[in-house]
Amino acid sequence: MSDKENQSKKVEQLEQFKVNDKDKYMTTNQGLKVSEDEFSLKAGERGPTLMEDFHFREKMTHFDHERIPERAVHARGSAAHGVFELYESIEEYTKAGFLTDTSRQTPVFVRFSTVAGSKGSPDTARDVRGFATKFYTDEGNFDLVGNNMPIFFIQDAIKFPDLIHAVKPEPNSGIPQAASAHDTFWDFVANNQESAHMSIWAMSDRALPRSYRMMEGFGVHTFRLVNEKGEAHFVKFHWKPVLGTHSIVWDEAQKLGGKNTDFHREDLYTAIEQGDYPEYELGVQIIKEEDEFSFDFDILDPTKVWPEEEVPVQIIGKMTLNQNVDNFFAETEQVAFHPGHVVPGIDFSNDPLLQGRLFSYTDTQLTRLGGPNFHEIPINRPKCPFHNNQRDGMHRMTINKGSVAYHNNSLADNTPAPASEEEGGYVHYQEKVEGKKIRARSESFKDHFSQATLFWNSMADHEKEHIINAYSFELGKVVSESVQQQVVNMLAHINLHLAQSVAENIGVSKPTEGGSSVTKCSPALSQTTTKYTLQSRAVAVIVDDGFQGQEVHDILVDLKNKGVNPHIISDKLGVKEGKDGVKVEVDATFLTAESVLFDAIYVASGEQSNKKFKQDATYFVQEAFSHFKPIAATHDGKQLLSNAGVSNAKGVVTEDDKQAFVTQFAEAIKSHRFFDRELV
């Protein structure tokens, strides 16, 4: 769907709302029809406002309380509705109905988010991304509350407040917003070296996703699956995007933060509106209980991955997001996730970070959503019936009938009554637990560097270069030379080349000793092993009057048929006419559309245009080239590429034959980026 078609659809929706509301009168919240909504009640036309103006007081009081506290973390989010469908039953491992019955379609609601920034921060900040899914199952809600990275900074939840205090804007200045590039964060990392593994993930391309549609999701923690026989297996959950896992580059991310603060939010919304529904396959990694201690890492440690080459991911189903929210506040802002929302067949492990989250999530909703009845907000309500003896509290919606609100009872025949396990009642896995009360952690949690080295070893050359540059940028923003040196010394435990490269870039002493004996790698950790597709990729098509009309028209039709979304870019809005009379309507101008908003560039004309057009088009192309994007040109557009100095490079297509051009350009778009340019 083109930009113009999107705009037309929005206009139609607005018109529809007008039709729906034309016979409705304005009322107070008590249903009283309002005769005037522009002037408050006064004692005379120029007199003081009267306290008896109940309409003014109601309207203003509601406005004064419209904003609720933003989330302490994950404040900036985007969300959508969808459905989950199971490919194959895993009843061998769990009795959860939505994971065993392939005939079910389970409604879902997914919220994506950044972690560190406020609600007003940019989408493209270097950050972890939240990936939280609420499954509205027949047995109750199951919340898979994860991130786009499979591990976390800390091992025990008691340190979570410290981590967030460190990464948030520094309290004396309130700076910087949505950024980890400052002293307190890196001081925390240097002095809490369990964060070493997560820090290298955060400095990788994973922290700069191309879109929410193109990033993985992970449950992070180790959970348990329990089957009908009461047998348990350890499990980690994965979301694999059907479009593959792709990223933007740092310069692009910074520019997008200014050009379009809502880049990821708009991408998700627009994709769903035009029918490019985001899809993610659900995978599980499963370990037998008897194999808990069979690995060179502790499987309960949330700072560790289970390498996919050692514990394969079994794909079992697919989630499709097919409906945008109707009201951002009521749904995206008020949705309340909790890792403790489970269903029969899913249980917890002793991961100490998970154990702490089981308390924290309920506690935070009490403040954000005004009391214990947040489960009655429509977006949070289970779609299956629920009954209990809980009563009252702020914002209670249910009108309970009868005099009995306790158990056991005889006045209501002892209802509602607990369900047996056979009747679907939740029964915790009977794990044997014994030990002395102690504040400590297992020795098996004390290896902080081997998997960070595994991650480094698994990266392609350009990914390693991005990590070096990211550490250099972040530590270059740190004022304390002591903190800079501490972090560099820590990096030496991961990889000596990494540490020395960063040290040279920021001007501190290079470590001479260090490195790691870990030589293995996990190809699954590199984004170069992901899927590549051109579906829903956005292509900027630069045109001016006098372009090769029919040929360009045919090329765009062919690209659309392959799933590409072309957008016509020129110097002015309106219509551009080709040499043969074929016309195209301009979607955006150089002033309103920058190269960073697109995945690829096609220059259909421009060399014969005026000086200003050529200047704007040349900058557009050169910027895209510097971000390693596919670029193509036909006819006089080829000369513009040549003059811009971007010809004869990988990912630049200038084929004259129309069909060959489409084929080659489509393959280039599918490749996403050409990082070899960076390493020349």
TrEMBL record:
Q: Per its UniProt entry, which superkingdom is the organism in?
A: Bacteria
Q: Which cofactor does it need?
A: heme
Keyword set for this entry? Heme, Hydrogen peroxide, Iron, Metal-binding, Oxidoreductase, Peroxidase
**GO MF annotations in UniProt:** catalase activity
Identify the residues that the record assigns to the Catalase core domain, covering every copy: 27-415
**Would I find Methyltransferase among this entry's keywords?**
no
Catalytic activity, per the record?
2 H2O2 = O2 + 2 H2O
What CDD domains would the database entry show? Answer: catalase_clade_2 (cd08155), GATase1_catalase (cd03132)
Query: What does this protein's UniProt record list under function?
Result: Decomposes hydrogen peroxide into water and oxygen; serves to protect cells from the toxic effects of hydrogen peroxide.
Name the family the entry cites: Belongs to the catalase family. HPII subfamily.
What name goes with this protein? Catalase
Q: Which organism is it from?
A: Pontibacillus salicampi
